[in-house]
Amino acid sequence: MTTEQHARAPRGTTTGMRALVRHRYGATADVLRCERVDRPRPGPGEVLVQVRAAGVDRGVVHLVTGLPHPLRLAGYGLRAPRNPVVGGDLAGTVVALGDGVRRFRVGDEVYGTGHGTFAEYARADEGKLAPRPATASFEQAAAVPVSGTTALQAVRDHGRVRPGQQVLVIGAGGGVGSFAVQIARSSGAVVTGLTSPGKLDFVRSLGADTVLDRTADALPERRYDVVLDTGGGTPVSRLRRALTPTGTLVIVGGETGGRVLGGVQRQLGATLLSPFVRHRLGTFVARENAADLAVLAGLVDSGRLVPAVDRVLPLASAPEALALLCAGSVRGKLVLSV
Ligand SMILES: NC(=O)c1ccc[n+]([C@@H]2O[C@H](COP(=O)([O-])OP(=O)(O)OC[C@H]3O[C@@H](n4cnc5c(N)ncnc54)[C@H](OP(=O)(O)O)[C@@H]3O)[C@@H](O)[C@H]2O)c1
Known about the structure:
binds NADP nicotinamide-adenine-dinucleotide phosphate; Quin_OxRdtase/zeta-crystal_CS; 6-stranded parallel β-sheet; Quinone Oxidoreductase, Chain A, domain 1; Rossmann fold; 7-stranded mixed β-sheet; ADH-like_N
């Protein structure tokens, strides 16, 4: 058995574990099950983490459905998932080390991303883990890795947000948005959050200077130095009208759809147009790494970033958690307690 494979393990086996698995791609309710499987073994450069909490992220939905199709070419399995266990974010305790691991010891409390984290144990690359923020619970820490890293890279690297700039966050009440509002604010920007009606107070509580109801206000007529778009499908032409003459648009994500392109047409359009206009328009794929996790842990421990955990659900409720996420009603993040 390779380390990617998780055979079904009989109940009571000492090397078994509970995990959320799917053996084929499909709708969450049809394919996702809580089963007993073998514990994974850490490969070279990996550690085995006893998962205490796992964050629920949009990426998990893509990995359950196998859509858009190009994702399957990225090593996740063409016809069926290579690793049946789902989940990316984790916080937990290192219980075993693979060959060559230098940065961690057994017993270290860590957070970051791993391979199949909706489980009692998960493998993780040591380069995608950092010590758990000292002031955060496992549940709070598990909410951070993918969404926090994405928000940090959107604000700092792609938005290049500077103190005093006007920043608009679209989808401010979602996972990435809730981190982006706080990180932009802690960078000294003046932040406007565009959100759904039921999340206005929530986004205000994150520190946004101005909060707008996306159903009532649509896109505001004022101009922003940086627009970070994490939700919906506002056309690039409309987003550009919300920018100052040399402003920056970062499309983090948005409406998904289409089995092939998965709704990335706006991102492609913005990237192709950018060289020909004064605006900087673009998108990016976040790269989880230990250095950024350490930055995020520092922000959490200094009180400048508070992971917004809407609800903690038990591991077996992962299908319900993914359904809630897709319904768009989650304030910030959902976390599974393992
Ligand atoms: N580029 C990358 O590397 C990267 C990494 C992670 C995620 N993503 C993508 O980024 C997007 C956000 O991820 P997430 O984890 O934050 O998802 P999420 O937690 O589901 O948040 C998305 C938010 O978008 C807002 N939204 C939904 N429909 C909208 C509409 N019609 N108009 C305006 N806003 C709308 C909602 O926020 P409000 O209720 O506040 O309006 C929703 O909470 C997803 O598309 C995800 O796939 C990209």
